[in-house]
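FIELD: query
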Amino acid sequence: MRPGLGLRQWEDVEREVGEARLASGYFWFLGGEPTLLDRIDTVHTPPGRTKPKWGTPRADPATLSATAIRYYADPLNRLKRLHQSWQEMSTGLVHRSIFER
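FIELD: result
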């Protein structure tokens, strides 16, 4: 079977890879970066069975390094949540979805 992409020049390969990264970046585990949702979840939701605390989180979600952000036990639930805007009641943190459904 012939390939579906005509990748004859290195520039074509770089362009196709760039477009694929843009299209799949929000999956994060495929090489993208954590979103604001992921950052908010990390500062708001303590690890283990500890209950979240009310008030301003100890860390600013925007300043967390990508390696400090936890991934999800249920990635499908994360993808669903990426399509919803919300405001966290106890901390006031806000997530505005760029692809609201």
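FIELD: remark
The mean pLDDT is 80.
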